[in-house]
Write a structure and sequence with these properties.
The protein is 73% helix and 1% strand. By secondary structure, it is mainly α. It folds into three domains: 203 residues, no CATH class; 60 residues, no CATH class; 220 residues, no CATH class. It has a two-stranded antiparallel ribbon with strand order 1-2. The two termini are 49 Å apart. The relative contact order is 0.09. About 8% of the residues have low confidence.
């Protein structure tokens, strides 16, 4: 198994895919003159900056977080934590696996080379496995802290490290199995996007449903003020409390991982490329914007002298006729162009990964945070009564939490909508379309698509709680202000860090440094959880109206900052 790392072909394919997995860091490194003659430095820099340093940062953060967890008093919390992180790791990575293996365009170049399919498969797997194992770092922190509290001493650190590596490898194995199932299912290439999207959404919802069930069931059993009672061990916490148990767990995990890996790799040759051909030969290729524009009526035909913009202002060169008929023809042409551009943008998001990660998952995350609280609070009539009595603050805080979760993530639709243009971006720049018009078209489209489901969720939550109509309207306005503000900043980020030569959508998500992305996600969770806790504390003091006013002022200040950024960015003539 480990001999493959000495294979020079494996190393070259591995390095090549490593570059594509980190486009921003790669571009910055290649712009530095000192890397010109020694490209190996780029690979070492990638492994150090993008993986090693970010892994160390994640480890330190989670260690500080779990040091205060009552793992000794309530051992079964360990089982819950490990299961949640395992499910989240699978949830956040398995679509990336499918993209790297079966959607990336670079795979076509390997097919013509006299290289075994298994080498290509293993090289790609090694690249995605590095990022996947990072997701399992919390296993090291929690396992080591739990073992130390159970009296295992310094050995708990070693046990935690080995279990972290094996947990990451187990996530890789699960992803390989899911990827195999997706590949086989996608042989029905006519329905490839629909099948993959459906499977991704079902898997995502199932993972979150399991996590919510665990949260609500544990909330019924855990009373933080009664932790001094009888210790309740789960399967994992029961094994990991002793040296023998840790060794037994490590042995079982290793046997399962190596056994499944051997079975999966046995039939890679002759099957891997076959799946790729069937999948990539399917219909549903994107039509370029140039073809869309040329298909418009005479009034917007670029090759006949028409000047168009995204919001329908069409001026034919040399035209001076201002009759009502000309205006009507122009409006008809503008309307047709608007419909065509809407269809074009809609085609950009017709990708399973975009639908799952940038649209569906951004809607699921607020449910992940808020629904357990509502379900648990629903059993306490007093809590809901307090929320109704302070409906203004409650509705405003819920709107802010949903707005932040659905838009502040680095995978949100506004953060990638420009890069999704791919090679069409350079063609768009050659059109007589101002940066402002192009920017606003992307902003309006991404906000509209990204806000439909969250708005429905908000209205449903408000009706369930019993929020008055005026407070609902106030909260929805606050939600829209926050969404527009955050989306505008992400869109500027996408413009400034645009990637047009990506192999699959996951390459766009990889622009941001992993440590920065993790910190951003952690801060979002932290801020939103603080807001939820803050709600219950403040309403008990009777300062609901004043706090809502304060949050409104802060939101308007943030909106003013965002608008100023947009104005400064869009007034530039070039793209």
């Amino acid at each position: 198994m480990f001999k493959i790392f000495k294979n020079p072909i494996f190393k070259q394919v591995f390095y090549f895919n490593l570059l594509y997995a980190n486009p921003t860091i790669t571009a910055n490194a290649m712009n530095k003159k000192r890397y010109g003659d020694t490209p190996e430095e780029i690979f070492r820099g990638l492994l150090t900056k993008s993986y090693l340093m970010s892994s160390l940062f994640i480890f330190i953060v989670y260690t500080l977080v779990f040091l205060v967890a009552p793992l000794r008093e309530a051992p079964y919390i360990l089982d819950y934590i490990l299961l949640v992180f395992f499910l989240l790791s699978v949830l956040q990575t398995f679509t990336h696996y499918f993209n790297v293996f079966y959607v990336s365009k670079d795979i076509e170049g390997y097919m013509a080379l006299p290289i075994e399919e298994s080498i290509i498969y293993k090289a790609k797997m090694a690249v995605v496995a590095i990022g996947t194992i990072q997701m399992a770092i919390p296993v090291w922190s929690t396992s080591a802290i739990y073992g130390y509290k159970m009296g295992l001493g310094p050995m708990s650190i070693l046990y935690g490290f080995i279990e972290f590596i094996l947990a990451g490898a187990l996530v890789v194995i699960v992803n390989m199995i899911l990827m195999e199932l997706l590949a086989k299912t996608s042989v029905l290439y006519r329905f490839k996007n629909g099948i993959i999207t459906t499977i991704n959404i079902v898997a995502s919802i199932s993972n979150v449903a399991i996590i919510i069930f665990l949260q609500t069931s544990r909330a019924r059993n855990l009373d933080i003020y009664q932790l001094g009672g009888k210790e309740d061990y789960g399967i994992l916490s029961g094994l990991m409390k002793s040296h023998l148990g840790n060794l037994l767990l490590i042995g079982i995990m290793a046997l399962v991982i190596f056994g499944v890996y051997a079975v999966l790799m046995r039939s890679v040759n002759g099957r891997f490329y076959m799946y790729i051909r069937r999948i990539q030969e399917g219909p549903g290729q994107r039509t370029s914007i140039k073809e869309n524009v040329k298909a418009q009526p005479d009034g917007v035909d670029l090759e006949r002298g028409a000047s168009v913009d995204l919001f329908g202002e069409s001026k034919v060169a040399g035209q001076t006729d201002k009759t009502s008929k000309a205006k009507k023809d122009k409006n008809d042409a503008c309307s047709s162009l608007g419909v065509s551009l809407f269809k074009y943008n809609l085609g950009l998001i017709n990708d399973p990964t975009v639908i799952t990660q940038s649209i569906v998952m951004t809607c699921i995350m607020p449910i992940f945070v808020l629904l357990p609280s509502f379900l648990n609070a629903g059993k306490d009539g007093n809590f809901l009564s307090i929320m109704r009595d302070n409906s203004g603050l409650a509705s405003a805080l819920i709107a802010l939490v949903v707005a932040i979760f659905t838009n502040a993530m680095s995978t949100s639709l506004p953060s990638i909508i420009v890069s999704l243009d791919r090679e069409n971006y350079n063609y768009i720049k050659s059109l007589p379309i101002s940066r402002k018009k192009y920017f606003m078209s992307k902003l309006i489209f991404s906000i509209a698509v990204n806000s439909i489901l969250p708005l429905l969720m908000l209205v449903g939550a408000y009706i369930y709680i019993g929020i008055p109509v005026l407070d609902i309207v106030y909260a929805l306005v606050l939600f829209i202000i926050m969404v527009v503000s955050i989306s505008s900043l992400w869109l500027i980020y996408d413009f400034k860090n645009i990637v047009t030569d990506w192999q699959n959508v996951s390459d766009i998500y990889g622009r941001m440094n992993k440590a920065v992305g993790f910190l951003l996600t952690f801060l979002i969770f932290f801020v939103c959880m603080i807001l939820v806790i803050f709600l219950g504390f403040i309403v008990s003091l009777g300062f609901g109206a004043q706090i809502r006013t304060a949050f409104t002022i802060l939101s308007l200040a943030f909106a003013a900052f965002s608008i100023s950024r947009v104005i400064n960015f869009t007034k530039k003539a070039n793209y």
